[in-house]
Structures are given as structure tokens and as C-alpha cells.
Design goal:
4 domains, mainly alpha, 89% helix
């Protein structure tokens, strides 16, 4: 009996020893894991600190740029960026590293957007200033060409141009740079009518664009089973031939009037025979127009020409309007906006001296 009891005691002591050894090993493993975690967290904390400091530097720069620009949209972006960065620092102090990293990256992104908006405002200001100065030079040159006793029509045009130029200056001083730029460019276009050779180019362009419109519209008009529209089409053809003959004879006034009348008749015939747009076709036209305009926009912006960039900005606005109208189901107007966007983009590329691909 005594021997048996001694055996149990020895067995119990052996089991306890094994348990103690196991617990010690587990403790050592936990300690080793904690040490490894601490070692792994140190580089993460260092990287996060660098990210936070980098965002602080971008925010500092954004404050300076936005303050100078006075752009309210940029100021709102900056305010949101500052708020996100404050949250990022709070998360970092609570050792929530991933959340802190996400917040500081978002803050930096909004700060950079603020810088972009403010810089665009500054770029718009410079472009408006240049356009106003160029319009002033155009006006001076137009006055010199007009001489001491210009015709009444020229006098009215010069007076209107001077008034518009004054408006552009007022808009500029009110920091309405986009409006100032648009008005100054309109002054230039207005005065171009007084430039040498302008009437010839205008008539040539009107005849050529009307010919292209006729070629594009004739098949649909002739297949619409509408005798009145077909009659208008034939009258437009005859007028366009007359315009070409008048142009060859040097009678620009008659050529321009005949071409314009032909164009008006064509548009009437097109309205009489137009069908409801097909949604799939509208979607295809929108995609093609977007690819065309976006492709030219990158090249026009790289050219650096202020007038060309302004026209391209207008093309992009009409493209966005076309998209919005398409989403609202106004398909006919969406197609009209795509045509405007294409024409403006083409004019911008021509002004920038870019050959279409």
C-alpha cells in the first residue's frame, strides 16, 4: 500500500512538472510573439509618421495657394482636407494605424485637389488678362484700318467692340475671370470681321459647310416619303449651285445670301423628316464624341494656346451637357449637344494648329 501511494505521488509530481514546462514554453512563445509584433509595428509607425508629415507639408502649400487664389471651391476642398488630417492624427495616437493611413491619404488627395482648383483659377486669370490685352490691340488696329471717315456700319462695330472690351475689364476686376475671358474673345471675333480677306473666307466656309450638310441630310430626306421636304431639298440644291456660281463670279454678297438660304431650307427639310432618336444610337454617338473630344483636348491643352483651350473647355461643357441630357432621356437634345461639342473641339484643334488623327 505504501509503495502504491508513493508511486501515485511520483506520477502526480511528474505531471505537474510537465504542465509547468508546457506553461513556461507557452509563456515564452507569447513573449516572443509580442516582441515580434513590437518589432513589426515599429516600421509601420515610422512609415505612418512619414505619411502624416508628408500630408502636413501638402496642406501647408495648399493653404498658401488657396489663400492667394480666393477660390471658394478650393477653400472648401482644403477645409475638408484639414478635417481628415486631424482625424488621421487622432487615429495614429490611438495606434489604429490602417485607419490613420487611409485618412491621411484621403486628406492629401483633397489638399492636392484644392491646389489644382486654385491653380486653375490663377491660370484662368492670366488667360483672361492676355485676352483683354490682345482684344485692346485688335481694337487699336481696327481703328487704324477704319481711317478718319469709316462707314456707319464700321463705326457701330467699333463702338460695340469698345463697350464689350470695357465690360471685360469690369468682369476681370470683379474676379469673374471666365466671363471676362469669354467677353474679350467675343471682341476679337467681332473685330475680325473688319480684317482683310475675311468676307471671302466666311463665304467659302458657309458654302462648304452647307454642301457637307446637304450630303449628310439628303439620303434621310429623300427616303422619308415627304414630298414637301423633298421639294425643299431640291430648292436648297439649286440655291447652293447658284452660290457657287456667284462665288466664282466674285459676287460674294450674292453667294453668301444664296448659301445661307440653301442652309435654312435644308434645316427646315430635316426638321420635317426627323425621326425619334434610337437610344442605342445615341449612346454610340455619345461614346464616339467623348473619345473624339477627349483625344483632341489633351493635345490642345499641351499646345498652350489660350484661345484654343477656351474653345476646348466649351466643347467639354457641351459634351457633359449631352451626357446629362442622355441620362434624363432627352435624346434629341443630347445629339444636338454632341454636334456642338464636336464642332467646338474641331475649331479648337484648328486654332491650335493640330491635325486631326
Amino acid at each position: 500500500m505504501r509503495h502504491t501511494r508513493l508511486h501515485w505521488v511520483r506520477a502526480d509530481l511528474g505531471a505537474r512538472a510537465r504542465l509547468l514546462r508546457g506553461a513556461a514554453c507557452a509563456f515564452l512563445l507569447v513573449c516572443a510573439g509580442a516582441a515580434a509584433t513590437a518589432r513589426a509595428q515599429t516600421p509601420d509607425l515610422d512609415r505612418l509618421r512619414l505619411q502624416l508629415e508628408r500630408t502636413d507639408a501638402v496642406l501647408e502649400r495648399a493653404r498658401d495657394v488657396v489663400h492667394v487664389s480666393g477660390n471658394p471651391r478650393a477653400a472648401r476642398q482644403l477645409g475638408f482636407a484639414v478635417h481628415l488630417q486631424r482625424l488621421a492624427w487622432e487615429e495614429a495616437r490611438a495606434i489604429r494605424l490602417r485607419r490613420a493611413n487611409d485618412l491621411t491619404v484621403q486628406a492629401r488627395d483633397h489638399a492636392q485637389r484644392a491646389i489644382g482648383l486654385a491653380s486653375k483659377q490663377r491660370d484662368l486669370e492670366l488667360r483672361a488678362q492676355r485676352a483683354i490685352e490682345e482684344a485692346g490691340r485688335f481694337l487699336d488696329q481696327a481703328r487704324e484700318r477704319a481711317g478718319d471717315a469709316p462707314p456707319e456700319r464700321v463705326l457701330r462695330l467699333l463702338s460695340l467692340a469698345a463697350s464689350r472690351l470695357e465690360q471685360a475689364g469690369e468682369f476681370f476686376h470683379e474676379q469673374k475671370f471666365a466671363v471676362a475671358l469669354d467677353v474679350a474673345l467675343s471682341v476679337r471675333h467681332m473685330l475680325e470681321d473688319l480684317g482683310p480677306g475675311r468676307p471671302v473666307r466666311q463665304v467659302e466656309h458657309l458654302i462648304e459647310s452647307t454642301r457637307q450638310l446637304l450630303e449628310r441630310a439628303a439620303p434621310d430626306i429623300e427616303s422619308a416619303d415627304n414630298s414637301a421636304a423633298v421639294a425643299l431639298l431640291e430648292r436648297a440644291r439649286n440655291l447652293l449651285r447658284g452660290a457657287e456660281t456667284s462665288q466664282l463670279d466674285g459676287n460674294l454678297a450674292a453667294a453668301g445670301a444664296q448659301a445661307q438660304q440653301a442652309r435654312d431650307l435644308l434645316l427646315r427639310a430635316m426638321r420635317m423628316t426627323e425621326r425619334p432618336p434610337d437610344p442605342a444610337n445615341v449612346e454610340r454617338v455619345l461614346a464616339e464624341t467623348a473619345a473624339y473630344v477627349d483625344g483632341l483636348a489633351r493635345r490642345v491643352r499641351a499646345s498652350g494656346g489660350a484661345d484654343a483651350i477656351t474653345l476646348m473647355d466649351r466643347a467639354l461643357e457641351h459634351l457633359q451637357r449631352a451626357r446629362d441630357l442622355g441620362l434624363r432621356g432627352d435624346l434629341r437634345q443630347a445629339l444636338a449637344e454632341t454636334r456642338v461639342a464636336r464642332n467646338l473641339a474641331r475649331r479648337a484643334s484648328q486654332l491650335a494648329g493640330i491635325d486631326e488623327m
